[in-house]
Amino acid sequence: MPIARYLVEGPSMEPAYRDGERLVVNRYAYRRKRPAIGDVVVLRDPDDSGRYLLKRIAKAPDGVDPGPSRVYVLGDNHNASRDSREFGLVPRKRIIGRVWFRY
Amino acid sequence: MSRQIITSLVSRGLRTVDHLAPPAVAHAHCDIPCGIYDPHHAQIAALSVLRMDQLIEALGELPSGASKADADKWHNSFARYVLVKEEHGELCKREIRVIWGDYFKPEHAEKYPELNTLVWNILKLAGKNRQEVNKPAAEELLGQVQRFAEIFWETKGVQSKRQPSNQAVGGELVVPA
Predict the structure, then answer these.
(1) What pLDDT does residue A85 have?
(2) Which residues pair with A3 in a beta bridge?
(3) Which of A5, A11, A22 sits opposite B30 (nearest CB)?
(4) DSSP string computed for A47-67
(5) Looking at chain A, which residue has its C-alpha nearest residue B11?
(6) What is the ipTM, given to two decimal places?
(7) Which helix (H) or strand (E) holds A84?
(8) Residue B52: in which H helix or E strand, if any?
(9) Which residues are registered as beta bridge partners of A40?
(10) Closest CA to A48 of A87, A15, A89
(11) pLDDT at B33 over 80
């Protein structure tokens, strides 16, 4: 399936995406192009493959090189989010897809 | 077709699909605990339960031979009071449960041997207050929640005091001194 449905749980991406909102994710978004800084994506939790996280692709800090196959992700509420500051760079193949629209 | 109509149709279709197969959860939780706890909401919830019992008492019996309009008004008020009592009984349980589960540590329970029983009593009492219109039970609930609040502030090394709620319900609130 090129799309997948997700239910947002928690406030770490507010105000862009709120708790309880439903999102459609484009799973083919990165077939031809790379994730860009600012994209909001659903990815598999690096610490728990059965769990999905909603994060935004961000610029890696100075001295951290993600290379072509990894990304740096952050929650929008930096003080309330577990993200690349904690679990580091994430392999691109763990990204499910890019958030397309809410419904 | 306008964009709005298409959006609405797509949304409706997807929600129908959601009913058949719920969407997966994308976690956007606060994974770092904020560490902010306060027994104030639990006390307000307990006071609200007591207030509803007072209002139900004041409502009295439905007068026999009341007109349809008066009977509707009476039933409507009664239903609202019961609904709010239900909600605040549950809210009280939730607030106490979160502080107990997330804030209190085993060493607190050691220092205050009554703590776990106190929480258990509050949960039971809140349930009783939902099941019944029972003012003494509501007053007892408020008393136990106040004691919980006192222990909470003591564990933070903060002196507390009891002060009038300054609300129609009367009663007292435990606040940092």
Answers:
(1) 85
(2) A26
(3) A11
(4) TEEEEEEEEEEEPPPTT---T
(5) A103
(6) 0.88
(7) helix A84-87
(8) helix B40-59
(9) A56
(10) A87
(11) no
Alpha helices in B60-156 (DSSP H): 68-98, 106-111, 115-131, 135-155
Q: Which residues of chain A make contact with B4, given a CB cutoff of 8 A?
A: none
CB contact under 8 A, A22 and B31: no
Comparing CA positions, the residue from A26, A6, A45, A49 lying closest to residue A97 is A26
C-beta of residue A9 within 8 angstroms of C-beta of residue B28: yes
Instruction: For residue B103, list its beta bridge partners.
Output: none
H or E segment and range at residue B175: strand B172-176
Chain A partners within 8 Å of B30 (Cβ)? 10-12, 77, 80-81
- pTM beyond 0.80: no
The beta-strand segments (E) located in A11-93 are 22-26, 40-45, 48-58, 70-74, 90-91
Which tokens hold the place of B76?
Answer: 């409507």
Structure token pair of residue B11: 């949304």
Q: Which DSSP symbol is given to B60?
A: -
pLDDT in tens, B6-19: 989 999 999 999 99
pLDDT in tens, A39-81: 999 999 988 888 999 999 999 998 888 888 999 999 887 766 7
